[in-house]
Design a protein that fits this description.
By secondary structure, the chain is mainly α. The protein is built from 3 helices and 2 strands; from the N terminus they run ααββα. The radius of gyration is 37 Å and the shape is rod-shaped. It starts with a helix and ends with a helix.
Length: 200
């Protein structure tokens, strides 16, 4: 009876884990699509920003641009939160970037202002890509772990429980047949004894 209960729990757990695995796979595919789109847009637009830095270096001097970049101190405020995907905690960050000045406008070329401003716009997009990559990695780990549990239940534990239950049932049936045979022999012996008593 205990093994039957454990078998029922294992079968129910297997069903729940399979549902979870399907849900995780659906979320994973959705995140991969989001990542592809975000990465594609980033890869498409980032060369323009890099080109602005090159133009700034050409318009001014490389040293002046490097000094200006090292002196520019943008203000970055990060807000952390999280969302749950099938009991898996996925971190989420909101970035608020305020571009800073801090460098001499006399030495730095005009193109540098635009380059720094565009880079400040790109920081939240970079953060989004990093967040999506991390979420995909977490989901991959959870999918792998859940799949291992599903396989362990499906191919090891449930068959083992069923085999053990079947063995116990066959032994109980064998014992029951032996008891019935014993009882029939006892009954035959009593009947024979009664017949002997009557003959006397």
């Amino acid at each position: 009876m205990q093994l039957n209960k454990r078998l029922k729990v294992a079968v129910h757990g297997h069903s729940l884990l399979k549902d979870k695995l399907e849900g995780l796979m659906a979320e994973f595919m959705e995140l991969v699509d989001d990542y592809k789109n975000a990465r594609g847009e980033f890869d498409r637009d980032y060369p323009d920003v890099a080109r602005l830095f090159v133009l700034a270096a050409v318009a001014g001097s490389r040293e002046a641009v490097e000094d200006a970049i090292s002196q520019a101190k943008p203000e970055l405020n990060l807000t952390e939160s999280s969302r749950n995907i099938l009991s898996l905690r996925i971190p989420h960050f909101e970035a608020d970037v305020k571009p800073g000045g801090g460098y001499s406008l006399l030495d730095a070329p005009v193109e540098l202002d635009e380059a720094v401003g565009r880079m400040a716009e790109f920081l939240p997009r970079m953060l989004e890509i990093a967040e999506l990559e991390h979420a995909i990695w977490l989901l991959m780990k959870e999918i792998e772990s859940t799949r291992r549990r599903v396989n362990a239940l499906e191919y090891i534990m449930i068959p083992r429980f069923r085999k053990t239950v079947k063995y116990i049932q066959s032994k109980l049936e064998e014992n029951e047949r032996a008891n019935i045979t014993r009882l029939m022999k006892i009954k035959d012996m009593r009947l024979e004894e009664e017949r002997r008593q009557r003959r006397k």
